[in-house]
């Protein structure tokens, strides 16, 4: 699913009115009515007090349409105008008139904290104060209103975006934002729903289809894409009946040091279970027996070093090389890594300490093949690109790094974001149970295993990140968040593949996301 920028959303809006020959007021009617339908379906006329807080722009206009529909259908509604400015939008004013013509119970105009109504915990708050048009911090009394929402502990439904959030930057004052239980977003989810600094402002979100021009949606290139099953399915490569292991490539997994052989074990096993035809683990000698005993399907080549890798030499042709898990950052290993990079011609997946080695010696970056995949966790990323002020600064820095070195960067986290040049891909699978030792090693193995089978590095990365998270989601059903370990993610990989072809449970037109699932 495309994640459009604010400018693209406004343009989609404008083009829709033009191509469908409708007014912007009609489009607002659709938007507000969609919100009403969503609530009506769930509430079925229940007389829970609903407080609808409307700003004076088009987000407020949506709120007024919703209020009017709720009133017409007999709901227990109170409508407020949060009058933070006298510059009211045209469609707000039209809907202000319409609601006044519908009911004698006119909206209450709020201009300061003294006007705030009583809100009980069991009431519902609808937040239509600011939409994507926010361009400066809200006034202090509006912030106080947001604090009152929070203090009430009422269920809060935000329209389009939690008020106070920007679409393209973080907020400095974390209290000047609505904390939504649910956000109903028009046309496309907003990038801020997925970033560590801002995702906390909505527990769940859903996109409502308001009939934006289809051609515009299809033809417009978005800088950000949300990756779910529908996006990865086209990558899937079915197997030919007469295929043999030679068709699915040979992964060379280089890593390990004394006490960290397990990382290579996890990555090699993942590569095999992701479907690689063959996997060879390249280790210091101390790892030989344990790896051969634990993984009979994996071949082993030993380095001359007993406890660490000291010179990387092997005499077969690997399809792809995964390097870095458990490898350490000793001087000898740095030398071996440098010599390896200078001669290697194969696609690379670089993780963990190999990223730290690159960060220590940035001159080596020029030896990385185009489309090398780097999979840093936040600390490794910081060593590589330096500190960042906030999530947007981080994304910009990674985009620049990706373009400068022609590499794919996987920013691991709750919503892993893959960056390839200007393009950002936000993953939707995974859960906090995966915050456990070795789960990153598993990802390295999966991506390497996919590249071995012939997936292009970018497809392998997006598909691999998706499958890794999906395996975690499947595994957590059996083990729970606390007891999930990296090995369980590998064990669920087969089910994650099978799940790709299960019947969809929801239409591709609407996406639903629950941060806790
Ligand atoms: N296709 C779509 O996405 C549609 C969007 N609509 C709604 O329109 C919204 C955008 O509407 P607007 O552009 O009117 O913007 P908002 O309703 O978000 O903001 C209202 C106005 O307040 C001003 N403003 C911004 N920050 C302020 C601050 N801190 N203090 C005082 N004033 C401030 C802005 O200049 C803006 O004109 C969307 O979020 C959505 O809810 C719908 O009505 C129809 C379809
Ligand atoms: N809260 C979370 N939600 C979803 N995925 C997570 C979460 N925490 C960690 N992960 C995933 O688990 C993996 C952890 O990788 P990493 O930190 O490198 O682990 P390790 O170094 O122990 O192998 C990443 O793919 C990350 O996206
Ligand atoms: K809002």
Automatic annotation (TrEMBL):
UniProt cofactor note: Binds 1 potassium ion per subunit.
Cofactor: K(+); Mg(2+)
The EC number(s) this enzyme carries: 4.2.1.136, 5.1.99.6
Domain YjeF N-terminal: 9-218
Keywords, ordered alphabetically: ATP-binding, Isomerase, Lyase, Metal-binding, Multifunctional enzyme, NAD, NADP, Nucleotide-binding, Potassium
Catalytic reactions of this protein: (6S)-NADHX + ADP = AMP + phosphate + NADH + H(+); (6R)-NADHX = (6S)-NADHX; (6S)-NADPHX + ADP = AMP + phosphate + NADPH + H(+); (6R)-NADPHX = (6S)-NADPHX
Residue intervals of the YjeF C-terminal domain: 228-500
CDD domains linked: YXKO-related (cd01171)
Residues noted as binding (6S)-NADPHX in the record, renumbered to the chain: 58-62, 131-137, 160, 263, 324, 377, 441
Keyword Nucleotide-binding: yes
PROSITE patterns cross-referenced by the UniProt entry: YJEF_C_2, YJEF_C_3, YJEF_N
InterPro entries: Carbohydrate_kinase_pred_CS, CARKD, Nnr, Ribokinase-like, YjeF_N_dom, YjeF_N_dom_sf
Binding site for AMP: 412-416, 440
Protein residues bound to K(+): 59, 127, 163
Protein's job: Catalyzes the dehydration of the S-form of NAD(P)HX at the expense of ADP, which is converted to AMP. Together with NAD(P)HX epimerase, which catalyzes the epimerization of the S- and R-forms, the enzyme allows the repair of both epimers of NAD(P)HX, a damaged form of NAD(P)H that is a result of enzymatic or heat-dependent hydration. Catalyzes the epimerization of the S- and R-forms of NAD(P)HX, a damaged form of NAD(P)H that is a result of enzymatic or heat-dependent hydration. This is a prerequisite for the S-specific NAD(P)H-hydrate dehydratase to allow the repair of both epimers of NAD(P)HX.
Family statement: Belongs to the NnrE/AIBP family.
Subunit architecture: Homotetramer.
Protein name (Swiss-Prot/TrEMBL): Bifunctional NAD(P)H-hydrate repair enzyme
Taxonomic source organism: Winogradskyella pelagia
